[in-house]
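Closing statement on the flavin mononucleotide sub-project.
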Amino acid sequence: MRYMTAGESHGPEEVAIIEGIPSGLNLTSDMIDQELARRQHAYGRGQRQVIETDTVSILSGVRHQKTLGSPITLNVHNDDHNHWTKIMDPNTPATAENSMRKVMRPRPGHADLVGGIKYRHQADLRNVLERSSARETVMRVAVGAVAKAVLREIGVDVHGFVRNVGPAKSDLSRLTDFKSLDELRAVTESFPTRALDASGDEEMQTVIDKTKRDANTVGGTVQVMATGMPVGLGSYVAATEKLDAKIARAIVSINAFKGVDFGGGFDNAEKFGDEVMDEIFWDAENGFTRGTNNLGGFEGGMTTGGVIVVRGVVKPIPTLYRPMQSVDIDTHENHRASIERSDTTAVTAAAVIAEAMVAIELAQAVLDKFDADNIDRLKEQVAIYREEVRSF
Ligand SMILES: Cc1cc2nc3c(=O)[nH]c(=O)nc-3n(C[C@H](O)[C@H](O)[C@H](O)COP(=O)(O)O)c2cc1C
Ligand SMILES: C=C(O[C@@H]1CC(C(=O)O)=C[C@@H](OP(=O)(O)O)[C@H]1O)C(=O)O
């Protein structure tokens, strides 16, 4: 499985093409839209989310709700494009009128300055921000929804949630293990559309509200957990095959993510070996099992069969309504950075995006390892392999 996305934030469309999804998989636009809504209605987003109604069109690769095995093309329309038709027009040369909304004072922390230098966009840094915008993550979540549909067929469940927003920590922030993600989903799914009794959501909401009033931005951490992955996906034999490394890359590839860890992660650095390694047990019914899951479901770049636990660090949003020091790229004079309409925090949406990215990597690993032309054959192959693992 591989995919590619295209689209500018204020251009007409966002697009993704996915190759390598088995035939016979049940897939509808509703299944994808549910995930898009989770990303879109996350708390702390700005006015853009009021304009958009993210819904997907399936343009190829699916017929009568079943995948064909051919490339799947997904498309999400940018409703905001109506307000930007002249500014984004690909077919007319730049004029004073259609070059309104130029960005000449790069925002610290965004891609503006370095992207401008690299691609010689000295006339307008909008040429950078249109693609560096996290609008692109709408398609990653759409691709992730397809990946999740594949994983569901073989009993793999993936769920992401917010651990903390700035200083406000969810009660869930310490979790490293779960038999089922249903319980977890029940308490995290509704955040942040309503305050919850448990899990510190109210506190997180308060931090976001205050940050907005202060014209500031805030970051946090998210956690993704996956249950049901077969043992031995990924490999230790080559650096490029390590699945934990692929997931780390996938997480840090999301806009604003600046760190990643697995299981006990950075906390393990303060512990001793006998507090960290997951001891090995065996019984006739289950085969090999572990007493703990401090290593987050990976050994040697391979899945152990334990719950996969991945965390990501999200920095605060770079665009500030009380902007920081910058320099005009035309005059080289000191100026405050440009202000673009912006979110207060990306952490809440980022949890959904991180979940999608983990799902994509897990699905890719499954589809690489097994015969994946058809979904039923994939399920048969996985079942045979699981039995081989159990009886080892
Ligand atoms: C869901 C989401 C929404 C974001 N919204 C904004 C935003 O409104 N304004 C902004 O300046 N940055 C926003 N960002 C962050 C920028 O896209 C990101 O910082 C920028 O592309 C530079 O990349 P880097 O932070 O990975 O280095 C958002 C990120 C995510 C994940
Ligand atoms: C459009 C989305 O996020 C955008 C990500 C983003 C950025 O700089 O990353 C900046 C903002 O863009 P705009 O100025 O158009 O409001 C966000 O709204 C989205 O997530 O759908």
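The chain has a mean pLDDT of 92. With this model delivered, the sub-project is considered complete and its resources will be redirected to Aim 3.
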